[in-house]
Amino acid sequence: MHTHGQDRPKPYVEVRDDYARQHRSPAVELRLDGPGGRTLWPLLTVTQGALILACLPLVEAPPEPRPPLPSLASVSQGLALLSGLQDFLCGPGGKPEPDVLASRLAALPSVLLQVCPLGRPLDTPPPAGSVPAAVAPSPGGAQKQPAWKAGVHRGRAVVSVALTEKVRSMQYGKSSQQDIWDVYGMVMCKCEVEGVLPNVTVTLTLPPNGSPLQDILVHPCVTSLDASILTACSVDENDCSAFSGPYKFPFSPPLELFRLCSYTSQVPMPPILGSYQLKAEENHLKANVVLKLHESVKNSFEYCEAHIPFFNQNLMGSVEVKVSSGQLEVSKEKSLLVWVLGQKFPKSHEAALEGTVHFSGTVAGPTDPLCTGLTAYIKLYFRVADFTLSGCCVDQHSVQVYSSAKPRIVTTRELVSSEYYIWNSTGDAPVSSGAVTASH
Amino acid sequence: MTIADLWDQRISAFLLSPSQFLATTSTESFLAELLHELRNDKTNDQLKVTKTLLVSVLLEHPTILCPSASVGEETALELLSVFSHTPQKSIVLKCNVMLAITNVIICTSCLNTHTKTAEDWLDLLFQMIQDINDYRCGLSQQPIRATACDCLREMETCSPGLLSQKLEALYLLKQQETTVLHQSYCLLYTLGLKNAIRILTNQKDVTDLEFKSILGGNEGFAWKSNQLELTSLPINMLVQVPRLTQGLDCKDLKSIMSLLLEESYLLMPISQSALLRELVEVVAMVPGLSRTLFKSQLLRLFGTADVSLMHATLFMKDTFTDSLFTTEDENFLLKRLVGMAQHPLLRITEKLFYMECILHFPENRPISSSGEESLPVLVTPRLAAFLHPTVFNDSATMLCRLNLLCLVHLEANEGEADKGIGFLFDHIMALLKIVDNDGSREVVVTSLRALFIFLMHFSGMEELSEKLIDKLCDMYSRHSRLAPNLIGLADRIQEHPRPSLVGQVAKRLTIHNLSWHLKVLKRVAKEGQITQRNTIYLLLNVLINSNLCERGNWQVGNAVLAVYRNLLDHPSIDQVFIELADLLQYISIQYDDTDIKDHARIYYTLLTNLSWEKLTGVLAKRLDGGRAKEPAQSSSESVEATGEVRNWLEVYQGQFQTPGFGSEVTLRYNLTHAKETDPLFDKVFTICLHFEPKDSNYAKVTDIHVPCVFRDRKSPEVKVKLKPFQPYPTSLCVSAMFTTQDGRSWHSRLPDVSVSFPEIFLPLPLPPNSSRECREQVFERIWEATASGNSDKSAISLFCFKPEDKSLADLIKTHFQGYLITDQQSERSWKVLLFLPPKCHILLKITQAEDAAQVSIATDNRELLPFLNSNRWLNRCFAGVHLHRSF
Fold first, then answer.
1. A36 closest CB neighbour out of B335, B489, B650
2. What is chain B's mean pLDDT, rounded?
3. Is residue B864 pLDDT above 90, yes or no?
4. Which of A73, A118, A142 sits opposite B99 (nearest CB)?
5. CA terminus-to-terminus distance, chain A
């Protein structure tokens, strides 16, 4: 495949590397060897590790001039099918064991026969390992069985609703460059409830003065939506008078675990504000890190770590670094400092790291094209149970299930870090984005 | 090896390359074997798997295995009998067979020609789907019923209107079915309904009765409704949506539609999106139906996380515009799209798709309707700020965002735009900085693509472009391996008015990494606006002050000559005329490679004997390449060259689809006795000749058997069939086993058979009665393709000589009689095509000027050139022992 260019010795191959070709579309073209040198288009691809999944949607139009992708119905169906195949083959973790992958690949033809007979997608393949436990065939009767529900649940009724919120941040510690952060959340549901089309309603609530949930996307099983729920949009002007809940999601659940809805949110401050100063002195680097936990954040972590990698350097030699809280570890590879902050920040909500790192003369450490010179970062990893930054929560009592048996209802929430970077303020941080979130 | 393993292997081989596989057997026999195995009554689990595999071959390649309608019909019949004999419990196999039958019937046009088998199969399918809610066959047979629905849907799709007289029956089935299969019934009914209405729109003055009779149809299959075939495109592809007459009574249809919409929620999202599209088409075609029918679904759809449902919503928007979507809706939908294009929880491909959707957003009041990318009016810099590219994006996302943001800032008002463009510029600079640190292919290509996008949009902003070009030059001086990338970029930018890039780069050249620099210089020499003095001084310097000439490397020499070739038709050549001539003469004397010397001499002669106009004329006609600024001309040529020309080339190339076509050379030899041997060997019998190619360029040669060779009789002729992978000269070791009269067996080594280069030539393999036009067109097309330089492997060469004793025409006749494409003696020009299996071509255009002949050579396999050159074969052809390569 030209576009996915296996690494060839040739650095520049025109058909692959031509600058004018559209390499920004979800569809690529595949040039075929052989007579006529024909081209397949639009080829949709999804790459996961060494696996490339591809499909060729039907073009129900004259091939020339090329119709725009959005005018082809088959493109979004192809994208959905590929996503489904990816989930089916790789599972939620994304990295199946080779033998697991092999067995799933072996099952692929019969799965495709089911979801895509004669090449026409009807459904997406079931995600790997999603087969629900206690299922009985549908009872028959006047009520039509949804196509996305193979049977009905039998047994104890349980509804679990898990709210996970993730926070990303890029902090520069400079007046010339604004720090940015964003928060997004998702509600995962697993409903073991009897009946062909049981009604369940999950309600998300915000604390008073909480900023509205934005960009809400819902699962197709949600039966109806109130217009006000969808109004807030992150790309829009902030409107303080906007609807801020409660957010009601009435739906009829499928049997498997599913993502009921997702949202983004704008919070006034990042949960942990950091500063990182790295200076080069003769043959060592002098580092100074301060992390400050925002007072509104629950000071009870499941884990909290700061990773301080050193790229394009030799391996670390002596490390003379002190921390005001937690412990410091030097990774086995001698190119990374791990500052384990543990479960709690000190009372002052502030923790500091200071010291020098020497690099031994000979062996080169890992390289990175971005982090040259004093361009360096700290990456934070943390998880706080029973907390969200937006304040969003699912009250156990607000989950309504209209069914004969009273179900057990389990709700959880958590905050997890994702791509949380603090850049060295004495170096040039890569421009992440000039204009973004100027509103912060 | 079990039968199953054997089939496994064979099917894999077939799927890998059907044509190659069928070359080893015949289609009929393979098909017969497949069907025979399928009829095998033994059932065990492994055999079931094998059978499923066999059916999948028929399912995927029906037209290869059933090349004609009659074979298709026979095969379908066989499969039908396989289907009825397969036990009830082999569900997967049965479903596969059903799909295979359907595919064979459709693909071999049994359906379109209304054959008996197709009719029987349709009846059977329709009978199967009557078993609603599995009353008769039970739950275990549900997949069969689902497949029957799928098969019917496929047949209705391929023969629209087939079910148009059965809509009432289908509606009732759809209503009564309550299992998960109601999705299949629902889709089948809706497709039938849409097609029936579509057919009705072709009819003038539809009456209420006719309209109603569609919904109430309960008759046979409508075989004659194929007229729809041409117009079955989705409505968004049509210039005008077909519409029914106004004023029809739509009450029943309306309630059917409402019910379908209400239940759409029960379908899988992908199927739901397909259903919605059909319903949108129905409403668009029936003026009596209100668009507001969809209102109840809109909110649910606006909020969906599913890409196919969102896409269907945009289709609805495109079809109904302001008759269903208010300005507010439009604004809202666009904001959602921008939000989704950067939503952290959506997949990358989905986000890329949404960005495409923004650029093709169906506005209620579009400014242009060209189908080209354009930015919706409502997308402002503020709205798009979140789509700003970052260095952390994957390459497709980054390029996609950059392109979108460029469009946004092009449209923005001044103050806002300057700031935005500044951000984008910083982004490009950040990318180039990464290239400085990391030269991996993807990083380089992505960054330069980004730069290209930026330059395309903002080429008018001199200051920014200058800065970028400075940065590139700076980078090149540190990383000369980027030369091919920069040349590629320059070629692209060339099409737009920014010629200074290459010139700037040239200023930074140094002696290191000469081969890259030569490439850049070659490109620079195409720039009419750049004086070439620097290039020439640099080369002069390099050649005189280094050991390049003594080393005599052919490739370097060629690269140097390639620069000259471009310099020769440079418009300001007269300014550097003397230096250039000096250089060429220097090479023609000093360079330690005959070929390079010869070429330099040709250039020298051309330069010193012809005026510039003539020189460029000669170069444009005879040699490869051309001035960089001529894309318009060449593209108009290729437009004219469509039609018949392309057909002939396609005919020619199509022949290679046939396995083994043109892959063999047959050499004839006589098998004779050596001069003096023992009388015992005067009569030898049952000779088996065994050939062993000495290299891997040829396939194994099959043994040849000769009954007998007698010394006193005529020696038998032996035909050796060679199958080259690479058509290079070779030699074969030959050994023989034979029996003498006394009954003893002997093994003997025969002299090697050497195969010279001309022996591998074949004439252009076209059908024997092909016209001269046809041959000429194929010749020209291959020439064009080769000369375009698009392929890594092709090459062009030039050869000049002075025919001495014989006339040129005689020489050509002697050597190329069988390979002549045209022979225009009057115009003193000839075209010769040498075909070399498996699929190489050497093309010669021979022209006679006043006192010399010129041979332009093109080949699609440059590896062959040395055999033409190094053995001086061409020389020998034309000049016998006299070798003249100069004027």
1. B650
2. 82
3. no
4. A118
5. 44
Structure tokens at A132: 């629900």
Give the amino acid at B116.
K
Q: Do B399 and A24 touch (CB under 8 A)?
A: yes
Residues of B in contact with A182 (CB under 8 A): 344
Give per-residue burial for B494-531: e unless 16+ CB within 10 Å, then b. beeebbbbbbbbbebbeeeebebbbbbbbbbbbbeebb
What is the sign, positive or negative, of the torsion defined by CA atoms of A220, A222, A225, A230?
negative
Chain A positions in Cβ-Cβ contact with residue B154 (cut-off 8 Å): 118, 120
Q: Do the Cβ atoms of B874 and B855 come closer than 8 Å?
A: yes
- Given the structure tokens 């409107």, which residue do they identify? A239
pLDDT band at residue B876 using 50, 70 and 90 as cut-offs: low
Q: Map residue A152 onto helix, strand or coil.
A: strand
Residue B601 is inside which H or E element, if any?
helix B594-609
For strands B683-693 and B704-710, give the pairing.
antiparallel
Q: Is the model more confident about B494 or about B464?
A: B464
Cβ-based neighbours of A18, under 8 Å, separated by 6 or more: B488, B492
Cβ-Cβ contacts under 8 Å, B495 against chain A:
20
B-interface mutation test, from A58, A118, A231, most B Cβ less than 10 A away: A118
Tokens of B89: 């419990």
Which two three-digit tokens encode residue A42? 């639009």
Query: Least CA distance to A197: which residue of chain B?
Result: B266
Rounded alpha-carbon distances, angstroms, from residue A43 to A40, A46, A116: 7, 10, 17
Report chain B residues whose CB lies below 8 A from the CB of A17.
441, 445, 485, 488
Residue A335's contacts (CB-CB under 8 Å, 6 or more residues apart) are A309, A310, A311, A313, A315, A316, A365, A366
Work out the number of other CB atoms within 10 angstroms of the CB of residue B570: 23
Tell me if B690 sits within 8 A of B735, measured CB to CB: yes
Specify whether the CB–CB gap between B509 and B521 falls below 8 A.
yes
Please tell me the distance in Å from B652's CA to the nearest CA on chain A.
9
Position B883 pLDDT exceeds 50: no
Name the residue among A217, A222, A435 with its Cβ closest to that of B385: A435
Closest CA to B434 of A137, A303, A375, A300: A375
Q: Taking 70 as the threshold, does the pLDDT of residue B789 lie above it?
A: no
CB contact under 8 A, B420 and A182: no
Residue-wise pLDDT for A86-104, tens only, equals 989 988 777 888 898 898 8
- Distance CA(A440)–CA(A425), nearest Å, equals 19
- State whether residue B883 is helix, strand or coil: coil
Read off the pLDDT of residues B551-609 as tens digits, 9 standing for 90 and up: 777 777 888 888 877 887 777 777 778 888 888 888 888 888 887 888 888 888 878 77
pLDDT band at B806; cut points 50, 70, 90: low
- Residue-by-residue DSSP string for A78-105: HHHHHHHHHHHHHTTTS---HHHHHHHH
Rounded Cα–Cα distance for residues B887 and B874 (Å): 17
Q: Which amino acid is at B282?
A: V
Spell out the SS3 assignment of B166-195: CHHHHHHHHHHCCCCCHHHHHHHHHHHHHH
Give the residue ranges of DSSP H helices in B321-394: 327-340, 348-359, 381-384
Residues 6+ apart with CB under 8 A from B463: none
Quick check: helix, strand or coil at residue A226?
Answer: coil
Check if the beta carbon of residue A138 is closer than 8 Å to that of residue A152. yes
Query: Quick one: pLDDT at residue B622?
Result: 46
Its sign, for the CA torsion A260, A266, A272, A275, is positive
pLDDT tens by residue, B574-584:
777 888 888 88
What tokens does B357 get?
């959707």
Q: What is the pLDDT of residues B627-659, one digit of tens each?
A: 333 333 333 333 333 334 446 777 787 777 777
